[in-house]
Amino acid sequence: MFSQQQDSMEVTALCIKLLMFVMLLLCEHEQKVYAVSLHIDPNRAQFFEYESVTFYCEGVSYCEVVHESKGKISSCNKTNKRTSTGSSCTIRHVFPADSGEYWFHDGGGRRSNSVIITVTAGSVILEIPALPVMEGEAVTLRCRNKTTSSQTLADFYQYGILINSSSTGNMIIHNVSKSDEGVYKCSISGAGESAESRLIVRDGQTKTVTPFTKITSSSSFTPWIVVPVLLVVLLMLVGLLYFIKGYWHRVYESVESTSTSTTTYAVVTKK
């Protein structure tokens, strides 16, 4: 009787452990689903022709980046790499036709945040963050001349209005706020003018929202596929455990019966 109670307690403990394991897997699944986001390196919205751009897809094992008009980026098939938080894809040489909006879809049918870049064949770009910046941060805008790396006089514009002239080619926005959000460009005398790009500022007091958009309802079925499979595995393991314990219990009883019979025979023979 004591042995059966002990077996029952062991099975119950195993069930609890397996159920906890199932819950951990589901929690991990939810974290992976809600952790999808797209980053870019270098983090700027404008590039010169022939420069290299790397996209980082956080939360997925394969970075399949999509361009708004060109569709899936074919170079991802050759340059895809795993990272500690997801994967990456590199476009080794960008061209003006690569300008536009980029994003990726995760395996559950969700779309990540978008990143917009502009590629120019001209001589001037504005180095401005492609990703949103947090309110209160210091943001540096740099007007860059393709033909020289030396400091140069540059003018900065917001919505086409001159807001700053810098002898270093840099404009620093200290303690950036929502009022600094907008469309910027710059110009260098004798070199030309950059394209326009938007600076996006996030409210530092607002709770960060995971940057994805649900585009299909298929992802909602994913946990309901995982749960039944894991429960079936759980039941199979419990059944297997009962079978093994029952088998060894019968073997033990058989051995005990044989041993008892042998001992009794020996005692009777001795008398």
Summarize it.
This protein is α+β, with helices and mostly antiparallel strands and 271 residues long. It contains 3 helices and 21 strands.
Report what the structure shows:
- InterPro entries: Ig-like_dom, Ig-like_dom_sf, Ig-like_fold, Ig_Fc_receptor, Ig_sub.
- The chain crosses the membrane at residues 221-244.
- Keywords: Disulfide bond, Membrane, Signal, Transmembrane, Transmembrane helix.
- By secondary structure, the chain is α+β, with helices and mostly antiparallel strands.
- It has a five-stranded mixed sheet with strand order 2-10-8-4-5, with no helix packed on it. Strands 14, 15, 17, 18 and 19 form a five-stranded antiparallel sheet that branches.
- The protein has three helices and 21 strands.
- It is elongated.
- 31% of the residues lie in helices and 32% in strands.
- Strand 14 and strand 15 form a beta hairpin.
The rounded Rg comes to 32 Å
The stretches of 5 or more residues where confidence is low (pLDDT under 50) are 29-34, 207-222
Biggest sheet strand line-up: 2-10-8-4-5
Q: Total number of β-strand segments?
A: 21
| Class per helix and strand makeup | alpha+beta
Shape descriptor: elongated
Distance N terminus to C terminus?
35 Å
**Mean pLDDT metric:** 80
What's the helix-strand series? HEEEEEHEEEEEEEEEEEEEEEEH
Strand content: 25-35%
Helix content, binned percent: 25-40%
In this structure, how is the largest beta sheet organized? Answer: 5 strands, mixed
- Our count of helices gives 3
